[in-house]
Amino acid sequence: MIVKRSCQRGVLLAYNAAVRCSAFLSFFCGCWIFLSLTTTQAAGLGESKSRFYYKDSRGFPASAGIIRHYWRTRIIHPPAQVDPNIDPKLRRTATIAEERANAHSRARCWRYVKDALLASGVVKSYPQSAYASEAGAELVRNYGFMRLPIRDPYSAPVGAVLVYGNRSRGHVEIRTRDGFASDYHSKNACFYPLVAVYGRFHS
Fold first, then answer.
1. What's the chain's Rg over C-alpha atoms?
2. Domain assignment present for 12
3. Whole-angstrom Cα distance, residue 162 to residue 168?
4. What is the pLDDT of residue 53?
5. Enclosing H/E stretch for 90
6. Do the domain assignments include residue 80?
7. Between the CA of residue 113 and those of 55, 107, 121, 197, what are the distances in Å?
8. Do 158 and 93 fall within a single domain?
9. How far is CA 21 from CA 7, 34, 114, in A?
10. Which residues constitute the domain of residue 103?
11. Are 172 and 182 in contact (CB under 8 A)?
12. How many CB atoms lie within 10 A of CB 19?
């Protein structure tokens, strides 16, 4: 009886050892195949459009996802384009207006736009109209501006002057690279109805 139990125990031990050996070999082979594939990709033999393969500081193959584009915040509207036909001084106007703009409106939009136009040299004298609704007419009449065939404020080129409003209220702002500037700067266009977009072509 003792001999039979010892024999059974020996068979069981041998079986367990064989299972452990088989599991180890399977794990080892799996790791070897994975490392071989990764090494092949790291060597440039297997290229990927979504991952970059390299060797880490210990010499082991590793990979990382490829990031092709990065923006800190979500882009709702694309940046304004530069129109090469528009007077380049208007781009300087946009920069000045953005630098001088406040965080919030002070109800002096046309005054700030006038100051930026004068500081950049786009106009040689200070515009005399008092209301934002009159800005477009004066720029066309006295300073060589033209009404541009644009109905979407986000499609206006950098430096364009945008006039908004109706009979009771109005607003004027300048298109910047990433928004709009007057007495304040904003990523979004004014919510008043757009009257017209104005620009001046250089000679």
1. 35
2. yes
3. 17
4. 73
5. helix 89-100
6. no
7. 56, 12, 12, 14
8. yes
9. 21, 20, 85
10. 89-199
11. yes
12. 10
For the chain (203 residues), the mean pLDDT of every run of 10, in chain order, is 46 48 56 53 53 76 66 69 95 97 94 97 95 95 97 97 90 97 96 96 79
If asked whether residues 10 and 49 sit together in one domain, one would say: yes
55, 13: one domain: yes
Closest CA to 97 of 113, 81, 80, 76: 113
Asked if residue 84 is part of any domain, the answer here is no
pLDDT for 97 = 97
CA 142, CA 5: separation in Å to the nearest integer?
A: 113
Number of domains in the chain: 2
56 and 127 co-located in one domain: no
d(C-alpha 131, C-alpha 144), whole Å: 19
Secondary structure (DSSP) of 44-77: TSS--SSEEEEE-TTS-EEEEE------SS--SS
Name the token pair of 52: 């970059």
User: Given phi > 0 = left and psi -120 to 50 = alpha, else beta, which region is 144?
Assistant: left
Give the predicted TM-score (pTM) of the model: 0.63
Specify whether 108 is located in the same domain as 60.
no
What gap in Å lies between CA 155 and CA 167, rounded to an integer? 25
Distances (CA, A) of 187 to 1, 36, 68, 78, 197: 91, 51, 24, 11, 17
Cα 68 from Cα 98, distance rounded (Å): 30
